[in-house]
Amino acid sequence: MFLQFILNGIIIGSVYSLVGLGFALVYNTTRIFHIAYAVLYVFAPYMILTFFNSLGLPLILSFLFAICVTIFLSILMEVTVYKPLTKKKSSLNVILISSIGVMIVVINVISLFYGNETQILNPNISKTISFGNIILTYTQIWQLVISSILLIAFLSILKFSKFGIKTRAMRDDDELCSVLGMDIFKMRLLLFSLSALFAAIAGGLVAYDVGMDPYVGMSMLLNAVVALIIGGMGRFEAPIIGGFIIGILQSLAVWAFSARWQDAVTFTLLLLFLLFRPDGILGEKRRLV
Fold first, then answer.
1. In which region does residue 32 sit, left (phi positive, over 0), alpha (psi from -120 to 50) or beta (all else)?
2. Tell me, what DSSP letter sits at residue 260?
3. Rounded CA gap, 199 and 59, in Å?
4. Is the separation of the CB atoms in 242 and 227 below 8 Å?
5. pLDDT digit string (tens) for 108-134?
6. How confident is the model over 209-267, as pLDDT tens digits?
7. Rounded to whole angstroms, how far apart are CA atoms 2 and 127?
8. Exposed end of the chain (fewer CB within 10 Å): N or C?
């Protein structure tokens, strides 16, 4: 039973890692606390529901179309909200409030069209596979496999590609990148698109397993942010490590106590890191000059 919960924690941790990485892509490079990112996680499953149930498209095709529409929404946020505010040199607090406003508007639009009740993408009982006493559903296996592939692929791109070099350069100093001739706003579009890709895939995989409602994005975002903080702000590997730690600890909390203890364990871990290691696991202390 203990191994079952450990494996369950690794699976949900891979999803936390993927969502956290998407958030870190925007935050580490633009310093925008992208609260509206929670909406992207929710928006994709509802687009899958629309294409799959309402329009009768195949599931895989619905998934791909939903990803494209979610990426378009993310780009729209950047072009209509974040970019104009950045050009006006608005403070990060103003941008944060604007992001919250975008989130509230989109959530209410989703509620208006789809209702507040939980929607189910897969009404059938998922098939399972057993390894001794360990039982996994096919959906869980897909969550782990797809998330792991995307995480490994991104880390490889980050290290070996020109895009990865530019991303790391923006993380270190976006103003210097602009001075040296990099098209910052074109690069931001790519980062917002990739961020939305991760959110859409994670949201679709989880929704296919347990369903969705318009408000699940915020709890997922909080877990992703905590994963980034305990992993180490400014590091793209940080939310991956933090996500797996949170996933395993939450699963063990369910095993030892109940599901009600999941959030308590997560934020207790956050407080401990803020008190005793605020730079996170991978973070390094920096000298202010």
1. beta
2. G
3. 18
4. yes
5. 999 999 988 888 888 777 788 887 788
6. 888 899 999 999 999 999 999 998 888 999 999 999 999 999 999 888 877 888 888 99
7. 22
8. C
CB 245 within 8 A of CB 230: yes
SS3 assignment, position 131: strand
Burial 209-240 (b: 16+ CB within 10 A, else e): bebbbbebbbebbebbbbbbbbbbbbbbbbbb
Do 205 and 147 contact (CB within 8 A), yes or no?
Answer: yes
Strand runs labelled E in the chain: 128-131, 134-137
Residue 31: closest CA among 87, 80, 96: 96
Tokens 């039973």 map to which residue?
Answer: 1
In this structure, the dihedral spanned by the alpha carbons of residues 201, 203, 208 and 210, taken in order and rounded to 10 degrees, is 150
Q: Tokens 């991956």 correspond to what residue?
A: 240
Paired residues of 129 in beta bridges:
136
| Cα–Cα distance list, 276 to 235, 238, 265 (Å) | 19, 17, 16
